[in-house]
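Archive maintenance. Older records in this collection stored only the sequence; we are now back-filling the structure field for every entry so that each record is complete. The fields below show one back-filled record exactly as it appears after the update. Entries are processed alphabetically, and Transcriptional regulator is next in the queue.

ARCHIVE ENTRY
Title: Transcriptional regulator
Organism field: Streptomyces niveus
Length field: 182
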Amino acid sequence: MDAAQQESTARARELQRSWYGEPLGALFRRLIDDLGLNQARLAAVLGLSAPMLSQLMSGQRAKIGNPAVVQRVQALQDLAGQVADGSVSAAEATSRMEEVKKSQGGSVLTATSQTTNSTGAPTVRRVVREIQSLLRSVAAAGDIIDAADSLAPSHPELAEFLRVYGAGRTAEAVAHYEAHQN
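Back-filled structure field:
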């Protein structure tokens, strides 16, 4: 790869970080690992071609052009979190992935489709998803729980934060966020 290609890839990954909270390569690899998929299966569930998924992962392409695909990514992130915290079994995750695959972006995913409110500010759910994504890009859910357990005796509030945002369900994290804003 020449210098111009490296610069283009770095720029694409930085754009991905600003748009999606992290480079898509890291996000997609985590979904593959957490949901027990391969790249071809992930591409099929998202409604992307395998070459397009590869281009997004490598930074050759920066943006997911189809909003329904972005919503499917968000749905899979939620599902991966539920698998990680044990609230969804592997078998149930497989059937839920089929629902995500069939979704057109509006009917199944209405709760995640709105990312800003009427003033243009990010919604609570979007802020929570950003926090979850950041924590989950740093460590696996099991490691986050271990860290929370270590902190619990001396810093119970911080331990709770790690558990809720690092390994909990998005709905629980939204409730935690809202409870701590006042």
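Update note: The chain is about 70% helix and 0% strand. The mean pLDDT is 84.
Entry marked complete.
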